[in-house]
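Journal club prep, shared notes

We agreed each person brings one worked example of a sequence with its structure written out as tokens. Mine is 3-hydroxyacyl-CoA dehydrogenase. I'm keeping it raw so we can talk through how to read the token line rather than staring at a rendered picture. Sequence first:
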Amino acid sequence: MSDKIAYSRHGDIAVLRIQNPPVNALSQAVRQGLSDGMARAEADDGVRAVLILGDGRAFIAGADITEFGKPPMEPNLPDLCTRIEASPLLVVASMHGVSLGGGLEVALCAHYRIAQPSARVGLPEVHLGILPGAGGTQRLPRLTGAEKAVEAITTGRHIKAPEALEMGIVDRVEEGDPEAVGLAYTQELLDQNAPRRSVSEMPAAEGIDWDATYDAVLKKGRGQISPATAVRAVQAASELPFAQGILRERELFMELMNTDQRKGMIHAFFNERAVSNLPELKGVEPRALQSIGVIGGGTMGAGIATAALLSGFGVVLIEMKDEFAATARDRIAGNLQGALKRGKINQAKYDALTTQTLTVSTNYDSLSDVDLVIEAVFEDMSVKREVFGKLDAACKSGCVLASNTSYLDVNEIAACTSRPADVIGLHFFSPAHVMKLLEVVVADQTAPDVVATGFALGKALGKVSVRAGVCDGFIGNRILATYRTAADHMVLDGATPYQIDKALTDFGFAMGPFAVADLAGLDIGWMTRKRKAPDRHPQERVPTYIDRLCEQGHFGQKTGEGYYVYEKGKRGGTPNPKIADLIAAEQQELGITPRPFTDQEIVRRYMCAMVNEAAKVVGEGIARRPLDVDMTLLFGYGFPRYWGGPMKWADIQGLPAVLADIESYAKEDAWFWEPAPLLKQLASEGRTFGDLNKEPLK
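Then the structure, token by token:
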């Protein structure tokens, strides 16, 4: 028997204890051990029941990710689940920690399930671009009903034990040692002569409006197909005998396994974890972090302060005037009120955070004891330099001085202090207490332990942290400026902002670029265009039609008018009729005859511009690896997760095809569409961006 399963006997109950730390993933050795353990129990004279439980932190956290992408090894999970369920012995699962994916599917094959109150269960396979493939879509609806099963499977959410009890997923919730509780429950069942109760033999769930449900799930997923496909699997559980339903589940599972979306989501899953794993930080201890200073209490500063407070840090926030300080305090309190309503904190915690943990001041001397300070003031170098001069004077030795700048040169900011080694960029995304991305911008003189501290802070705040070098816009905003420019060019050449927004949301983006501009504020782009104007390349095409709107004081959502018009009390906006006239005037001025664009061409140009600039960013070392770009775009810019990121998208399309399109566009605008040297090199060598991700970092 596998050393991953410990076999013991307590009276007429055999116990199979899974021992595969840290979370009892369902490796081949675990699967084989469970199969062998069932056979041993059935051959063990006098054994009437089997109790399955996990050692350590979890029952079974799911599949063994080290086996992803490798040929399947027997026993496969569907066969193991059938084997467990068919046992003539009474089988009980005692669940603690998490039981996810295959872990829950194993538990569903037991005849009875007991869980700790803190346990969580779920079938999160849709987040990998697949669906539960070991009977989960067939067994769960027999316990919960079709509607609840669809919701659980298509969202992949974690379900807490009390809710799982209400849904019928578990039979009892009880506090205690999982083995002791499980043995007592199993003995109780034996004493009551409880029957074997195979979920597969239970009545099928009643049907629902499957087509409407499929359409609703597909729409909610913005083009992701795995949740909608899972609806069809649950439908099979309702309409077919169990054995045929299992075959249908397997058929749908294999269809998804062969999709590009599955490749993209697996890429995202692994690299979300890999992006913060930097060899340069191995053995480098971060500086101690207990209290954090924040300069500026606007939307961004208040969001950063909120994130820090919710993560257990003391916060000192600095504003210029008392009235601004009061507004900042209210803004943070409002953010925390949202956390209170969502159940992330209780009333006592809310009261403590707002009255004790948070300090709001107008005096920089209040920062004398903080361990790290983040500047989140107006995006202007003269303002940043003034703030950092004050921080240099007020903050203790060893305090990390961080700028939340979106574009500006962190080296120049560091140079205005007496301690450039302590200076780093920490670029948060708004709202900072919600958005997961953190760009850690490493300047020329940033000390290694300061870099480690930036990543440690990101981890503490629950962020996906990406290392970036210094350039205008770093990774994300530099690439954004380019693909947004590609959209602007298409507008001048004949596409409308509204066609572009729709084509890109249909592709899977959370929002189109013009709706995003309205949300962020049109004044940001306007200010950037003015800042860059003195150094602009003579061949650069820069549309200025939207500047006319900014000159009239219209900056998007915050003023009620931008590319769209926004009415109070109404969600979203309607196309602004002024935009067409502004575009037409500029087309006439430039002598452009507008032409039609297909949605497919819009998406292709937009994506090729993104990939080409991203290849330049990687080639220059601003991003160390293509995966750094992918995670930046996924977590900060609404890129559809099921494509894995722009570099993974390009690999899926084929780099020679992407390069060929870029070279064809270059015939119209050679300066903007100049192919990235790295892209040309990889295409000529028959290599991919994914190949670069496998190379060791230097």
